Amino acid sequence: MPIINDLRRNEVYLNAKLTPLLDKMALDPATVNTFQDSQLFRYHLKAIHEDGYAFDDEERAVGLRCVAVPVFRNKKVIAALAIAAPTDQLSRSSVKQIALKLNVGSKAITQELEALDNIH
């Protein structure tokens, strides 16, 4: 059975279409911060969708935080742009600001991809 926590950095990919898959996945803990309750995990996914970014707060590895945003192509998520850093270098209070900067990069990548699509 796949371990959902291996997908933490790519949470931006997950949406309601994956509910049947989520029901089959294990929520095995990687750290004490790993979501093990499926309802709490689903609530977290909803927040990611609403906020437009994912934040891993030592859920996969103790001492490591990650912020990720989606990258689009043809209005579909095709990748994530992320940054991970030790907790002493990536504070919780800086997450929204980092997500905003990552979104700037994501939009630039999306525009480049659209430009490539228009060439062909």
Short précis:
By secondary structure, the protein is α+β, with helices and mostly antiparallel strands.
Number of helices: 3
Structural Rg: 15 Å
Q: What is the beta-strand fraction? A: 15-25%
Find the structural class using helix and strand composition.
Answer: alpha+beta
If strands are numbered along the chain, what order do they take across the biggest sheet? 1-2-3
Keywords:
disordered N terminus; 120 residues; 38% helix; 21% strand
Can you tell me about this structure?
Mean pLDDT is about 80; it is low at about 1-10. The protein contains three helices and three strands, in the order ααβββα. The protein is globular and about 50 Å long. It has helices spanning about 20-25, 40-50, 95-120, and strands at about 55, 65-75, 75-85. A hairpin with a 6-residue loop joins β1 and β2. It is α+β, with helices and mostly antiparallel strands. The longest helix is centred in the C-terminal third of the chain and has 25 residues, at about 95-120.
Topology overview:
Blueprint: H1 19-24, H2 38-51, E1 54-57, E2 64-73, E3 76-86, H3 95-119
Antiparallel strand pairs: 1-2, 2-3
